[in-house]
Amino acid sequence: MDTLFAYSNQLVSETDVTFKRYMYDRINWENRLVGLIGPRGVGKTTLVLQHIKNNLDIHHTLYVTAEDFYFAKNRLTDLADTFVKFGGKHLFIDEIHKYPDWSKELKLIYDYHRGLKVVFTGSSVLDIKKGSSDLSRRAVVYTMQGLSFREYLMLFHQIDVPKFSLEEILNHQMNVSVRHPLPFFRTYLERGYYPFSMEYDFDLRLQQVVNQTLESDIPTYADMNVSTGRKLKQLLAIVAESVPFKPNMSKIAEMLTISRNNIADYLLYMEEAGMVAQLREKTGGIRGLGKVNKVYLDNANLVYGLAKEKQNIGNIRETFFLNQLRVGHEVSSSSLADFKIEGIDFEVGGKNKGREQIRNAEKAFVVKDDIESGFLNTIPLWHFGLMY
């Protein structure tokens, strides 16, 4: 226990609190059991350490990772019991999915220690969602994604830009003091979505995130063999090089020599794990029931990292738009344009994009890349990166 406390206090003391992710102020830390999930590398660990440093007494707080060797011989329930006896009030458990039967033990901790608040994080989103069924009515689970363009400007360039709502953006009610934003935006699309891109070997680390997700997280959850894990990587490569990808199950099955019945499951697994995003028809708010019309990589950094010389700029633009808008809005496919949000059609393209496709739309906007400012129903693409 002493070693765990020493490690916890060291991490907290070394944590930088000058920049906080958008989710920091959205979490209700007063709940007794809080879950924070999201793809690998988006900053979940840093966020919880910042909360500890800014708000909690370290003498009554413990941060542990489920990967610690301590758990090779000790159970979570035993740790919680000992921690409470020593006056512990706040327990943070990182990478919870690395611990077998984690959801059942969290349930016991919740029921036995009513004065203890527990926060857990997990990168294997599939496993977390599966285990969360055991914690229904107990855990409040939040999902966090990577940096917005706005957050990137602050973290990488110390440029402070306020958040804007979709309504403010569409009505041109914005006052942004960023001179020549397009070079910043281009770099963000290539390598600004993950906080770890500030460090060395970004390309290598991004590849490790992809490999860990496809070779470990998903196969472990879905009980796949190694060869099936390789099929996931092949399927992801197909999506990466598409413009964008419109799923033809029979054709994909032939290319990958797998059953077409498995492809929809594979894509869903990759979506839940933060590797792809599926654009569906409007479903009345019940996510997942609509027909999938297009499949994108989850974010633009993945396109640059995986498609290499086969990148398609149109695909990158649409990937960014979907990625940023989905945080606060339900985005569906449109019969007239690329996307529909709250009854409004959006057509995404370059600076020469015309209005032909949305001519008959009741309310629509053209979203253009490579322009600094908008007018009438033309909105710069980078503006949609300032929403969280």
Question: Can you tell me about this structure?
Answer:
This is ATP-binding protein. The protein has 14 helices and 12 strands. It has helices at residues 2-14, 44-55, 76-85, 102-112, 125-131, 149-157, 166-170, 181-191, 202-222, 226-240, 249-256, 260-272, 300-307, 313-325, and strands at residues 33-37, 61-65, 90-94, 117-122, 140-143, 276-280, 292-297, 331-332, 339-341, 344-349, 364-368, 378-380. The strands form 3 sheets. Strands 2-3-4-1-5 form a 5-stranded parallel beta sheet. Strands 8-9-10-11-12 form a 5-stranded mixed beta sheet. α9 crosses α10.
Which sequence of SSEs, written as H and E, runs from N to C? HEHEHEHEHEHHHHHHHEEHHEEEEE
* Proportion of beta-strand residues: 5-15%
How many runs of DSSP E, i.e. beta strands? 12
- How is the largest sheet built, in terms of strand order? 2-3-4-1-5
Average pLDDT, all residues: 91
Helix content: 40-55%
